[in-house]
Amino acid sequence: MLVLGGCLALTPGLQADDHHDRDHRNAQERREWNEREERAYKQYLQERHRHYRDWSKQSRKEQDAYWKWRDRHADAYLDRRH
Fold first, then answer.
1. Each residue of 40-71: b (16+ CB within 10 Å) or e?
2. Disulfide check for 45: which of 3, 50, 77, 79 has CB 3.0–4.6 Å away?
């Protein structure tokens, strides 16, 4: 019975994570790769001391890391950097 209670207690947290993941994927699908996004991507690489590599050649893991960074860095932040 205790195990069942523990599982039920975790369920809302798992649902919240699923909701966040779904929102993150939806945000990515809405994004348009344009000149502004390219500049943001270059800023991301520069901050990590990485050489430029075409976006389409980046691994899914690297692309996901970029989108997480991008979600935390609004266009206003990028505009201040130039």
1. bbebbbeeeeeeeeeeeeeeeeeeeebbeebe
2. 50
Query: Which pLDDT score is estimated for 31?
Result: 77
Check the CA dihedral 44-77-27-24 and report its sign: positive
Residue numbers of the domain that contains 51: 34-82
Distance from C-alpha of 66 to C-alpha of 70, rounded to nearest angstrom: 6
* 58/40 same-domain check: yes
Q: Read off the tokens for 49.
A: 């001391």
Q: Rounded to the nearest 10 degrees, how much is the dihedral formed by the CA atoms of 52, 58, 61, 66? A: 40
User: What residue ranges of the chain have pLDDT lower than 70?
Assistant: 1-30, 81-82
pLDDT given at position 61: 96
Same domain for 39 and 53: yes
Q: Which residues does 56 contact at the CB level (< 8 Å), separation at least 6?
A: none
